[in-house]
Task: inverse folding
């Protein structure tokens, strides 16, 4: 028996070559190596379920994937439409160079929006989304990480079913992990009305998918190809502040229209094809924009099928570009060494760097891990605020007086490398100022971390932080 166990244990070391060939960052490689070697069987099992995170997904580049019947050809990453070129001509040469850098990082063209509306909580977002769904004429495409089977989820399912009965094409894509609590029988009326539903599953042995750890964390909603929402909000009663254990829930979503909606439709079509095999390419899904472009917008995509980590590089680029301020709100804070260094360097050169994190969230251990980074950030001059008026789930980044980024990605390992994420970066002094006022309001509802007081915190807290920090690459 002992010999058999020893042979099985040594056999689990067969995961080590696979781990090394993934070329993870050294800290993550060492963490998984220790798990495989020093936690017999369990370490290898967890690695198989969670650590094999590089998804060999066939990207939807419409030019090569869609048939000749496709009515649309996507623009190359370096091609900008005339309306956007006009906007670019009105910004400084340095800003133009920075936008082109981001376009190369994200392999997507610089785009534009006719309008850009900031929605500061679920009440504003839900009302706006309901209004768009009720007015839909051709299609409604919704993509969420969490959709709960409570009264809020039921309300939106009824709204979608009503739209489907009006002969509107309705597609609902939910992540299989984030929405695991949603029973499929709750979707029966929606499906009976003609609505189309799919799980986004990266764990599907029938389709040769074995990636439990990869999740679609994007929140994207498109109506008639003319209006789109992007941000951090999901569907459920807790997001309306109705969960007494969590209290008020702060989040941010933005609504855009114009040219950028076609770029976002590409994102949804990509994810829908991955989930269902159905191609979305006909011209009614990509109507031409008719209004005047007013805002420069760039789509920032992240996911385990994009090896160059565009969201991380975009954040670091903004930190390096800023000369006056960088204010960041993030639901979860577990930074890697690159982002940590960029934050410290920005603060060290005199930039007003502020970090807003939530004092509590739905994953309490992440708060503990995040605090393990406070000491070095405070020493560099970063100001840290812990939001104490509820849960702050917003993902917002402001750089100087005109750059802003809003989306689904947190400042943590998972968002940078494991999840499928979606952010929008825009160049707008007006919207930057609007978000700055929102963050100033949230700073006032937060406790600023004092460097001396933090250094004197109890030993038990320091030990918990130190014990959990080595697990950061696996969280």
Result:
């Amino acid at each position: 028996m002992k010999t058999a166990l020893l042979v099985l244990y040594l056999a689990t070391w067969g995961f080590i070559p696979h781990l090394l060939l993934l070329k993870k960052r050294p800290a993550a490689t060492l963490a998984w190596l220790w798990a495989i070697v020093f936690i017999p069987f369990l370490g290898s099992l967890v690695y198989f379920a969670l650590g094999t995170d590089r998804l060999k997904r066939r990207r939807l580049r419409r030019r090569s994937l869609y048939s000749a019947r496709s009515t649309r050809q996507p623009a190359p990453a370096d091609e900008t439409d005339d309306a956007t070129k006009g906007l670019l001509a009105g910004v400084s040469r340095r800003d133009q160079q920075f936008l082109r850098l981001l376009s190369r990082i994200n392999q997507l063209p610089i785009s534009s929006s006719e309008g850009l509306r900031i929605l500061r909580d679920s009440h504003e977002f839900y009302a706006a989304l309901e209004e768009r769904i009720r007015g839909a004429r051709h299609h409604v495409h919704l993509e969420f990480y969490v959709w709960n089977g409570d009264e809020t989820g039921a309300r939106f399912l009824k709204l979608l079913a009503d739209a489907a009965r009006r002969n509107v094409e309705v597609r609902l894509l939910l992540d299989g992990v984030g929405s695991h609590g949603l029973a499929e029988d709750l979707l029966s009326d929606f499906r009976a009305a003609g609505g189309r539903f799919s799980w986004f599953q990266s764990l599907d042995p029938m389709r040769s998918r074995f990636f439990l750890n990869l999740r679609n964390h994007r929140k994207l909603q498109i109506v008639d190809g003319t209006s789109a929402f992007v941000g951090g909000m999901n569907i459920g009663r807790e997001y309306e502040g109705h969960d007494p254990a969590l209290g008020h829930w702060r989040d941010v979503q933005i609504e855009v229209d114009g040219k950028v909606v076609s770029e976002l439709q590409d994102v949804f079509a990509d994810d829908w094809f991955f989930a269902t095999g159905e191609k979305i390419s006909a011209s009614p899904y990509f109507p031409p924009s008719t209004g005047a472009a007013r805002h420069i917008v760039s789509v920032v995509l992240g996911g385990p099928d994009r090896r160059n980590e565009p969201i991380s590089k975009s954040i670091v680029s903004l930190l390096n570009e800023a000369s006056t301020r960088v204010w960041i709100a993030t639901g979860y804070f577990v930074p890697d060494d690159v982002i940590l260094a960029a934050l410290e360097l920005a603060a060290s050169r005199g930039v007003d760097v502020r970090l807003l994190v939530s004092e509590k969230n739905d994953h309490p251990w992440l708060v503990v891990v995040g605090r393990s980074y406070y000491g070095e950030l405070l020493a560099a001059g970063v100001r840290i605020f812990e939001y104490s008026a509820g849960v702050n789930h917003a993902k917002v980044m402001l750089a100087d007086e005109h750059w802003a980024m809003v989306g689904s990605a947190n400042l943590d390992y998972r968002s940078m490398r494991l999840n499928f994420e979606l952010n929008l970066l825009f160049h707008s002094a007006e919207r930057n100022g609007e978000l700055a006022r929102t963050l100033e309001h949230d700073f006032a509802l937060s406790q600023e971390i004092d460097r001396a007081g933090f250094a004197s915190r109890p030993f038990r807290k320091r030990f918990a932080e130190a014990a959990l920090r080595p697990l950061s690459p696996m969280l």
The longest helix spans residues 260-276. The two ends are 35 Å apart (CA to CA).
